[in-house]
Design goal:
By secondary structure, this protein is an alpha+beta fold. It contains eleven helices and 19 strands. It folds into four domains: about 160 residues, Nucleotidyltransferase, domain 5, CATH 3.30.420.40; about 80 residues, Dna Ligase, domain 1, CATH 3.30.1490; about 90 residues, Nucleotidyltransferase, domain 5, CATH 3.30.420.40; about 55 residues, Actin, Chain A, domain 4 (Alpha-Beta Complex). The structure holds adenosine-5'-diphosphate (ADP) and magnesium ion.
Length: about 400
Amino acid sequence: MAKHDLVVALDIGTTKTCCLIGEIDPAGKIEILGRGISPSQGLKKGIVVNIEEVVHSVEKAVLEAERMAGFDICSVYITVNGDYITSLNYSNHLKIGNSEREITEADLKKIIEQSKKSELFQGKEILHFIPKSFSVDGHNGIINPVGMLGNKLEMEAHIVTALNTILQNIKKCIKLTDLEIEDKGTVLHSLASSTALLTKEEKELGSILIDLGGGITSFVVFKHNFLSHSGILSIGGNHITYDLAIALRLSIQEAERIKIAYGSVNPGLIEDEQIEVNSLAQNNKIFISKKYLMEIIEARVGEIFSLINNQIENLKEKGIYLTNVVLSGGGALLPGILPFSRNILKLPVRIGLPSLFTGLPESYHSPIYNTVIGLLLYAVSQNNHKIYKNKSYNNNYFKKLINWLQEIF
Ligand SMILES: Nc1ncnc2c1ncn2[C@@H]1O[C@H](COP(=O)(O)OP(=O)(O)O)[C@@H](O)[C@H]1O
Ligand SMILES: [Mg+2]
């Protein structure tokens, strides 16, 4: 039997944790063997606030996926998100010192290693180090300088880092579930989403992927085929829910319900009508204006897109012009989001939806699953997946199954 590789993607979102076990056949085709979802608990804006709860959410999603696949997994790729993650464009140079000598792979390695040791990254872990371009003796725009003659090699890279102390807590939670994180397997949430969504042409011409999650909105910008900028705003769809709960005096659960059932960002387009809701204050049913509901939603969504627009304007000042915007995450499900965001960003906007792998049901065709799908594709692109040989159930599996059944009944 031909050997198949296995990759496991674990997206730890601010509202849900999602695990996909994918098998890659020798031709590179991906089939999903197991999937699991659990509500994310113990996290606040991407930061662990309760280890036990995070471990529980991860265990639940992983166990569900393992149960479906019929075997245990041992290592995963994970997503991380939160304002403890920062990114910057970093330049460095290396003196070759002899124009007769060709630049070698060893020179490239040296300039990258030197850069990683910069004091800028002290107390931080480098999640992504993406060399964007090189220049040799002042001639820039070189993609690969190996083999060229020159005295001075310069490199520009986009570097994404995470504060060590905070990142270690997420890593600890994964360890406590008996899982290992793959080498270079800690992936920026929005970068994972972009892997599933942005076309080669979009990455070349200049695009921004905006992931509208629960507690966080994050973005990545691609230009000339490279990740050139990334950023995180600590506002997301949950803030809309809290706004509704406070303004209309509703429970969080009721505010979320009416947001999903009646929310939109087209106030100009509708006739007003009254919606029946469960009031928290009066503990009975009251009527609220649908137009008022939309105004509250519009204020928050407007704030998010204005902040993103500031980022796009900053990029323009640096000579980086974008040609389109792709939306992802649960916030992209809000009716009216396309015209609303186009109006603020003054760019073409589309909602990103990747094609599904074999083994994924149609319910996964939603922007909320783009990240886990993208993470799996990212993992496959890393080319260091584990070879999977034996599909037999092991003891640990039965132990976990019993725990799982006890939890249900
Ligand atoms: N139909 C919808 N309309 C508006 N918001 C939605 C809809 N469905 C989900 N959301 C919001 O999307 C957010 C969750 O998005 P998701 O991408 O799953 O987040 P995360 O990755 O942070 O867990 C929540 O704030 C949720 O209320
Ligand atoms: Mg997400």
